[in-house]
User: Which sequence fits this backbone?
């Protein structure tokens, strides 16, 4: 049973387009929602994160939108570039830094020229 | 600054063999964890630790054992390897105080069980 659901499984976007990845969760104890980016042969690395007291967070071309009532959050990549081609994972964690981090199944993004 | 170091990077085992995947971090992080990554399943938490002497189970703990005798090291033991344990294993750590929430990952250990 997946605690954090993620879609789509794979995504192909043209250069300059917008990439959108969606996630959903059930556990209302989750209180911290990061996104990780992973390139082939490497470990994941933190991209951007949000807490549920805000509805949106933007860092450069990357934006997280958060809908607390629907228990959904999404990653938008504006002006997608070939260098953004990677696997993206959404994740969730409880209120304290001692809580475990649970990941979604991942989305493989390919940005084509 | 090495960050999170995992060894070995590649390993092939026969069914029933035992082995230990090593993980060491030099950032004085309290929190350490092990994940396995399988196609279509994402990263699934095996075990985690919030400090020396403290460990807890994650989503898929069966067949794996951990201990945390020092802040720096968090080895993962496979007692009797099975083909279902063929996977890429990642160790990750994070600081608890102050809490930035960011997990730092190693580069992974690819395990094949025949």
Assistant:
């Amino acid at each position: 049973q997946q605690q954090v659901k993620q879609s789509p499984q794979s995504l192909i976007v043209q250069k300059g387009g917008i990439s959108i990845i969606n996630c959903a969760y059930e556990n209302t104890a989750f209180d911290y929602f990061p996104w990780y980016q992973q390139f082939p042969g490497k470990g994941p690395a933190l991209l951007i994160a949000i807490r549920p007291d805000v509805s949106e967070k933007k860092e450069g071309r990357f934006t997280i939108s958060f809908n607390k009532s629907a228990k959904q959050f999404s990653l938008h990549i504006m002006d997608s570039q070939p260098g953004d081609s990677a696997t993206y994972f959404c994740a969730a964690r409880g209120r304290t830094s001692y809580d475990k981090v649970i990941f979604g199944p991942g989305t493989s993004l390919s940005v084509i020229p | 600054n090495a960050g999170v170091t995992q060894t070995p990077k590649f390993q092939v085992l026969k069914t029933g063999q035992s082995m230990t995947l090593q993980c060491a971090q030099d950032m004085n992080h309290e929190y350490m964890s092990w994940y396995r990554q399988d196609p279509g399943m994402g990263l699934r938490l095996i075990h985690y630790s919030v400090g020396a002497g403290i460990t807890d189970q994650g989503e898929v703990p069966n067949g794996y054992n951990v201990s945390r005798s020092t802040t720096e090291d968090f080895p993962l033991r496979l007692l009797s390897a099975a083909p279902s344990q063929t996977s890429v294993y990642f160790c990750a750590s994070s600081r608890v105080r102050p809490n930035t929430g960011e997990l730092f990952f190693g580069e992974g250990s690819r395990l094949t069980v025949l």
Observations:
- Chain A is about 0% helix and 55% strand.
- The two ends of chain A are 37 Å apart (CA to CA).
